[in-house]
Write a structure and sequence with these properties.
72 residues, two-stranded antiparallel sheet
Length: 72
């Protein structure tokens, strides 16, 4: 599955675009000025996405990668 397919599936499942999730992650304190804070670990983001949106590990990791700047 391509990276974009992961992002598309996340949006279908959650109803939130990757950018909307980025905004929510900023509110949670994971990002600052659109950049993932260095102290934030993948496990924290995965746990949040699993609890709030029932996402699995692979889809959560795709969002984490998106937060880190991956686009394709």
């Amino acid at each position: 599955m391509s990276f974009q397919a992961y992002l598309d599936n996340v949006q279908t499942k959650t109803g939130k675009s990757p950018d909307a999730l980025k905004e929510l992650a900023t509110e949670k304190g994971f990002l600052e000025n659109g950049i993932l804070k260095p102290e934030v670990k993948a496990g924290q983001v995965i746990q949040w996405l699993k609890e709030e949106f029932d996402l699995g590990h692979g889809h959560s990791m795709a969002i984490f990668a998106y937060f880190k700047g991956k686009t394709s």
